[in-house]
Amino acid sequence: MSPSRLSEWACEPWYLAQLKPGGFDRAVTNLDRQGYESFMPLREETRRRAGRWDTRLRPLFPGYLFVRVSDNRRQWRSINSTYGVSRLVALEAGRPTQVAPDIIAALKLRARDTDTVLRTETRLEVGDQVKVVSGPLTDMIAEIEAIPEQGRIYVLMELMGRYTKTALSTSDVEPRLGAEQSCRA
């Protein structure tokens, strides 16, 4: 994404809309008709279904959609009555809460070009704990033992009561937040 486009994304106010169940497509279509830009970051996720491994795109924040209200459209109230949208998230009564611009900028930086699919984080270090998000070891927690080359890591994970060294692609894992990290603002 170009720096000018990124600054445009970060400078205008973004709000978080809670969606009605199954309302994503309807909300995006109707918000677009009203002139609002929306953004739902997605990530690839692998799950076992009916005995087979299935990789699908899943929302990073299920049930929520970011909506940009440009400077010339300060009328955010119409978003609450849009088909597919339940309401704008508000932390204080009477006015929706604006999403911090650096959050939107960080999500867009991780997105692939014009797509909404997020790239996996590549800043991994030896000793970091990671969660496997793709492949037959999905949802397993592992510790990075070595990073021999770009795009590949060796991890230690507990399998059947023993620690086993396994090679994985960096795109198959994501950093695991510890309890102390997940509570930081």
The major β-sheet equals: 5 strands, antiparallel
CATH evolutionary superfamily of the largest domain: NusG, N-terminal domain
What's the number of structural domains? 2
N- to C-terminal distance: 26 Å
Number of distinct helices: 5
Write down the Rg: 19 Å
Overall pLDDT, averaged? 79
Which stretches are poorly predicted, pLDDT < 50 over at least 5 residues?
Answer: 178-185
Structural class per helix/strand content? Answer: alpha+beta
Helix content: 10-25%
Strand tally: 12
* Name of the level-1 CATH class of the largest domain: Alpha Beta
CATH architecture designation of the largest domain:
2-Layer Sandwich
Could you say which overall geometry the principal axes of the C-alpha atoms support?
elongated
H/E order of the elements?
Answer: HEHEEEEHEEHEEEEEH
Q: Note the beta-strand portion.
A: 35-45%
Give your account of this protein's structure.
There is one protein chain. The protein is α+β, with helices and mostly antiparallel strands and 185 residues long. The protein folds into two domains: 3-110, NusG, N-terminal domain (Alpha-Beta Plaits, 2-Layer Sandwich); 129-178, SH3 type barrels, CATH 2.30.30. The chain has five helices and twelve strands. The chain has helices at 3-11, 24-33, 77-80, 101-110, 179-182; strands at 14-19, 37-39, 42-49, 52-59, 64-68, 85-88, 98-99, 129-132, 141-149, 152-159, 162-169, 173-175. Strands 1, 2, 5, 6 and 7 form a five-stranded antiparallel sheet that branches. The protein has a five-stranded antiparallel sheet with strand order 11-10-9-8-12, with no helix packed on it. Helix 1 packs antiparallel against helix 4 (101-110). It is elongated and about 55 Å long. The model is unreliable at 178-185 (pLDDT under 50).
